[in-house]
Amino acid sequence: MIQFDNVNKRYPGGHEALSGVSFHIEPGEMAFLTGHSGAGKSSLLKLIALIERASRGNVIIDGQNLNRLKNRQIPALRRKIGVVFQNHNLLFDRTVYDNVALPLIIAGYHQSEVGRRVRAALDKVGLLGKERAMPITLSGGEQQRVGIARAVVNRPPLLLADEPTGNLDPELSAEIMKLFESFNQVGVSVLIATHDHDLISRLDHRLLTLKQGRLDHDGSTSDLIGQTVAAGGES
Amino acid sequence: MSPRRERRKKPRPDNSSGAPLKQRPRGRVNAYLTHHLWVLVSSLGVLWRTPFATFMTAAVIGIALALPAGLHVLLQNVQNLSTGWEGTAQMSLFLKQDVSEKRIKSLAKKLRGWDGVAEVRYISRKQALEEFKKLSGFGGALDSLNENPLPAVLMVRPTSAAAEPGQMELLLSKAKELKHVDLAQLDMEWVRRLSGIIELGKRGVLLLGSLLSLAILLVIGNTIRLTILSRRDEIVVTKLIGATNAFIRRPFLYTGFWYGLMGAVLAWILVGLLLSLLSGPVGRLSFLYNSQFSLGGMDLETTAILLGSGIMLGLLGSWLAVGRHLQAIEPS
Q1: Do A78 and B35 touch (CB under 8 A)?
Q2: CATH hierarchy code of domain A1-80+156-235
Q3: Considering the domain boundaries, does residue B6 fall inside one?
Q4: Does a structural domain hold residue B12?
Q5: Tens of pLDDT along A126-146?
Q6: Residue B221, min C-alpha distance to chain A (Å)
Q7: pLDDT digit string (tens) for A69-94?
Q8: CB proximity B15 to A under 8 Å
Q9: Which domain holds residue B258?
Q10: Predicted TM-score (pTM) of this structure
Q11: B239's torsion region: left (phi>0), alpha (psi -120 to 50) or beta?
Q12: Distance between CA A218 and CA A234 in Å, rounded?
């Protein structure tokens, strides 16, 4: 689903955010991406959603080499990727329903289909009663769940999350993670960037660790226990 | 039954789980049209929520459109008026000296049968002499002549349809070929001058209209630019979700459409107001000239052109602004 092949990302000015990163996430796999801030987590996610392009190497998403993707093909790629943002990125001038419906309207779904899918997605995140609410009236955790509903309403094969629990307390964070796991169980590939070690050490998934733009470690979250990092360990 | 239908008949898997499913959204064309309609209405709704700002922009466009439209209507009225003065465009046929009264009468009758001739008036040599004596004050000098030097004249007044320069020219050349006519003269220099002035006026309106159209483009472009900037976050989010540029462009184009339409309607109202304010004095003036003339309003064609150009300018202005500013907004 996600394949990085010796990828470099160098920003104008010479800062190298990623260098020689290679990994492969299979369809239906769930993985965490971790590392200190500035280690290149955000850059890596941006390359997947084609917010930025790799300076060198190949990024292949769902069999498509992004280097060969023209600009006008970007929207089609992004519709295959559900993205959850740390700051939710909700539109505050419209209701929860309209926020969640946006990806479907963009993709040109029929009204009746839109209603059905939006309610299914809101039901999934436990916000069915809040369709008519404005996002500003919701708590941080609820806003994040609206963001998740919006990311999955289109049933993308790939779900990306950038610090989805960044502003939430541990209990809410665990709930959000459970939500991601449930999507993964029905076949969605999930990649979550986070620096919340406590949270991910309790879940058993693949863990990619970035350090100064290089892939420092590719193993299982169970390796985190006791802070012993076994180099080269496969899950 | 087609294989496609068969596939549709299969029971659908439970979709509420959020699993990725590769199925084509139903009724895409229908949904596309619904979406357009929705954007059309919702962009009007957005404008409606800021009535004052919307009115200001529409008023600027309206005034800029009303100026050339109003001048155009006034020019049209002048043109109608000048073609209405059918009595003043006429042709004088000076006849040869030796033509008998009877011949002249039959010639006048013949002329009356022509296409485009409304009236033929005969001025005999005697009448001409008397008239000349009265008007010129050379009566004494003429008395010393043995013979009346003035020719008989047939005054030909064209119908209103034939009163325009080209037709008159044709009538004149036809009259020149008549056997008994010595000299045929068209006294219509003033008609030509007036139509020249009207042409000049029309060109002026066109130039003014073009200049003001440019101003409207800039006004709409700038308004749309500000709208784009104020909705920057929304644009970034929709782009991240996979919106095409066309999708993002659409609400702004429809906003431009509404501005253009509202401006054109305002211009139409303004011109109507202007004409109704002028119609009183114009009516009194034409009464003093014993004329039936009254100021005509904007005809259907001009109205259609006004509305059409308002809408086109709105769309074009927003298109230019959107093309220029949307590219600059990319998620980062």
Answers
A1: no
A2: 3.40.50.300
A3: no
A4: no
A5: 999 899 999 999 998 899 999
A6: 24
A7: 998 899 999 999 999 988 888 999 88
A8: yes
A9: 33-83+194-325
A10: 0.71
A11: alpha
A12: 7
